[in-house]
Write a structure and sequence with these properties.
This protein is of the alpha+beta class. It has helices spanning 27-42, 136-149, 167-172, 177-181; strands at residues 47-49, 59-64, 78-100, 108-123, 129-135, 164-166. The protein is 22% helix and 31% strand. The N and C termini lie far apart (45 Å).
Length: 186
Amino acid sequence: MALLKIARMGNPILRARAGEVDEPTAPWVQRLVDDMIETMEDASGTGIAAPQVHMPHRIVVFRVPGERASALPGDGEQDLTVLVNPVVELLGSERAYGWEGCLSVPGLRGVVPRHLRVRYRGIGLDGQAIEREAAGFHARVVQHEFDHLDGILYPQRMDDHRLLMFVEELQRHPIDLAAFLNGEGV
């Protein structure tokens, strides 16, 4: 296994649509996924998509730590999941705002509106279909990683760029997100 270089915002690979993987069980896919996992863990990430490591393929890896999950049905701890050629279906119209960071946008966090519930499917490394419904943080992670496959970074999903900030400034000057969104704070 190897640590891979993470592409940063501005790199053309992060703006392009990734290509389908013809053979999800091919040995090169397993090697790439092993390297993606090692890279994600080294960078303390929750997820990573192949374009983030300069590979133009529709592959994502993610997990949902128990402490990040909410009480919503479909939002619980999620073991490491690998999806090849994933498809995401947005369910309902309910959306939620939440803080997001990205290994390709280091040092920044932003508040992004995301659908509260999704259904996703893809192929696992064993060639078997994976299909799940997700809510809350689980749904947010899936949408974030899937966006990478279509050349979208989270700042492009933001609707108020006053909520894009450096992590250090956010730690020094915390924001009550609910109050801010209700127009009660700056």
